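seq as requested:
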Amino acid sequence: MSIFLSPGKFVIMAVAGSLIAAGCSKKSDTALSALPPAQAKGTPATVIVHPNETGIPVSTSFLGFSYETGILPDSTFLTPSNTVLVQLIRNLGNGVIRVGGNSSDRLVWTNMARTAVTGKDSVSTTDIDRFAAFAKATGWPVLFGLNLGIYDPERAATEASYVSQALGGNLLALQTGNETDLFSRNGHRDATYQYTNYQQEWNQYFQAVRNALPAVPFAGPDVAYKTAWINSFAIAEHQNIRLLDGHYYVTGPGSDSSITYHTILASDTKLPVYLMALKNSAQPYSLPYRISECNSIYSGGRKGVSDIFASALWALDYMWTVAKYNGQGINFHGGTGGAYTPIAMANGMPVARPEYYAMLAFHQAAHGNLVPTDVNTGQLNASAYACKDASTEYVTLINKEENQDISFTITPGIKAATAQVFILTAPGITSTDGVTFAGSQPDANGKFTPSSPTIYNPANGNFIVNVPRGNAAVVVIH
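struct tokens:
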């Protein structure tokens, strides 16, 4: 059986005398009316799944958002009264919210309620209370960053105590300093600042906080890119942390006019090297690792690159690559604005951007273990990944080609009775609007209800899925 996916719809075609079905209807588990036969189209590629191999467990809290500490004083965003944002996050199942970023090393903890004269360059108890209520509403635990830029262990301990009390069981871990491997570059420290200096400061913060909170969990080192710092930190502090983490961006800054959407769609040779370094640092100590801040282009992203549908294709491939290297999750950096944010604010309301739809697609497909696949795409800019739980296989197909449709032949390796197709699409690869996953968008209240997929039978045990240029698909086989 072959399937042709076109932007905004898909058509299922028979190759062995079966019926042809197309479209989808809500809350239906049966194929719709038949369409005339059509020929499969696209350059061939193959995906052979090995479901009987153990594979790599995909964390149930893989997805995440990263926000600047500087957004906490904004009473309109990370608040339980922002019910649309809460719902958009809840659509993604379980995940992690990280608070930190560059502003975490600038904003000062007041240990008092916010008043009319409290500056935006500070964090108050009011801000933490509101954010804690927001986190509780989402059900997502929090990675919370303490200010190391302005060195003050005792103040940090006071803040940690309040944050821990406010978040309660929603506190995943505390972190100390953001991108400390860049401290000598961004003005927080002088040019002589090295890892050994950071290690000493981290220990002093750790002791001050643990004196107040003997059991509070920590994570780190939350660096920008220096894997040597990550490895040294793991060696020195593995007994004191529950999570190892670092950041990743494809390139930047966002002001660089040479960066186009082709940049993020190109093969990223740096990412596997970086992920392997984190994996190798974490593995000896049985530590999980996470990319606690990431996105396409640093310094806010770039318009026409980070806010178009190409960024969704990049994000989906990026998430699966992190999972492939045993990463426990990612946190896409964003906020109320910025080209790269997965959820933006427009006219006072949260709006899902293309990257958010990639997260929906990942959530649909990330079940059980990521199992090995033999993927042959030739010279095509395409990728495929497969997960398997107790009874179902989930295959993600990503076509990053601008001018070629691709015909993926999937050999599932299981006796499959039926399969379902969900498509991630937009009017074009440069579209900022009109993005859908599974034929749907979140409604005015933020709730996402996927259209029911077409259900079909296999032919000779295989499935041919024709993914149009600049589209992706999730195929659920069972």
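Residues 1-39 have pLDDT under 50 and may be disordered.
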